[in-house]
Specification:
This protein is of the alpha/beta class. It has 3 domains: 4-103 and 147-264, Metallo-beta-lactamase, Chain A (4-Layer Sandwich); 111-139; 279-341, no CATH class. It has helices at 47-59, 77-80, 83-90, 98-109, 112-125, 130-139, 229-243, 259-280, 287-293, 305-324; strands spanning 4-6, 11-17, 25-31, 38-40, 69-71, 93-97, 155-157, 170-174, 183-187, 200-204, 247-250, 328-330, 339-341. Helix 1 links the parallel strand 4 (38-40) and strand 5 (69-71). Helix 7 packs antiparallel against helix 8 (259-280) and helix 8 packs across helix 10. The termini are far apart. The structure holds zinc ion (ZN) (2 copies). One zinc ion is lined by residues 76, 78-79, 205, 251-252. Residues 25-252 form the Metallo-beta-lactamase domain. It comes from Streptomyces caeni. This is MBL fold metallo-hydrolase. Pfam families: Lactamase_B (PF00753).
């Protein structure tokens, strides 16, 4: 069953399922240009998802073989998974921000053993217990990683510039945070239904109507720079709020209006979360201990193994922010390092 929607003004969307994931599906947008349809994101790499993409495109009057180009908001597999297959079918170019292209290149070139060793060391430094590390150490040398074969883009999306879409005005807005190279894409054309505001915004995972995107660390075994992804995310949010698009076309859930109100909700959410963490940090805690005490969508002991990595990286991203703001500090001489409210 093809599920498509016509958003007017030569923009349609179709749903590509994400297998075994509560998010359900990725919204892939089809933007008409003078040289053929261009896709914003492509969906998860899975035979069923490919069928859904093909059926959705057919319902939009086109096919994978007719796609002129693919614009990717960020490197995650629910967005970029099928890009390679589309390029194979049509010869379409694939465009992505340089920082996310680097992530793909690194993932393709790094041996799985190196990743497992890196992750085990990182989690140990964050205070993870030995029973959590054991499976990672055991996995060295035999497991494969998702995204290993993900397609290398052939064009860079340059922040602030218009993309090469004949007949359309689509400008890239760099919105790091969820990933280092996440971009939103601003369609600088009047809203087809005359809604007030400035054009429409393809927001990827940066701005979603009902959920907050995961903000972790930009994991890179070759880079020891202390980044501040949550700080990047909050800055990017404010920038998007100021754009004031008439409508937001996100990559999950559904389109919505009043982007500035949603931006404010998310800013408040993160400010509340940071304040809540400070209350926990009256006693020194490792990132792992902090993650155990944070509020998640279920109790810690029911969070599955893999999701605990994500939770800990989110705790670390918040700690980085607090340290950068001077509201928390590392306890000198602690090993693994603990943090306390300043
Ligand atoms: Zn994502
Ligand atoms: Zn996503």
């Amino acid at each position: 069953m093809a599920q498509t929607a016509d958003h007017g003004g030569g923009v349609r969307s179709l749903r590509v399922p994400i297998p075994d994931n509560p998010l359900g599906h990725t919204l892939v947008y089809v933007v008409d240009t003078d040289r053929g349809p261009v896709l914003v994101d492509t969906g998860w790499d899975d035979p069923g998802s490919w069928d859904a993409l093909t059926e959705g495109l057919a319902a939009c009057g086109t096919s994978p073989g007719e796609i002129h180009g693919v614009v990717i908001t960020h490197h995650h597999p629910d967005h970029h998974g099928l890009s390679g297959a589309v390029r194979e079918a049509s010869g379409a170019w694939i465009a992505m921000h340089a920082a996310d292209i680097s992530v793909i290149r690194r993932t393709r070139e790094t041996r799985p053993e190196r990743w497992f060793a890196y992750m085990a060391d990182k989690l140990a430094a964050a205070g993870a217990p030995e029973e959590h590390l054991a499976p990672l150490r055991a996995a060295r040398g035999r497991a494969s990683l998702p995204g290993l074969a993900s397609a290398l883009p052939d064009r860079e999306i340059v922040p602030g510039e218009l993309l090469d879409l004949p007949g359309r005005r689509l400008r890239a807005v760099w919105t790091p945070g969820h990933t280092p190279g996440h971009v939103c894409l601003h369609l600088e054309e009047e809203h087809p239904a005359g809604l007030p505001g400035h054009g429409r915004l393809f927001s990827g995972d940066h701005l979603l109507p009902e959920i907050t995107p995961h903000i972790g660390l930009y994991e890179d075994p070759d880079d020891t720079t202390v980044t501040d992804p949550l700080g990047d995310y909050l800055d990017s949010l404010e920038r998007i709020g100021r754009l004031g698009p008439a409508e937001v076309l996100p990559a999950h859930q559904h389109p919505f209006t009043d982007a500035p109100a949603r931006v404010n909700q998310l800013l408040t959410h993160h400010e509340d979360r940071l304040t809540g963490l400070l209350a926990l940090l009256t006693t020194p805690l490792t990132p792992w201990q902090l993650a155990e005490r944070m509020e998640w969508n279920r109790p810690w002991d029911r969070i599955p193994y893999g999701s605990r990595h994500i939770a800990v990286s989110e705790a670390e991203a918040h700690l980085r922010r607090l340290v950068k703001l001077g509201r928390a500090e590392a306890v000198a001489g602690s090993d693994p390092v603990t943090y306390v409210a300043a």
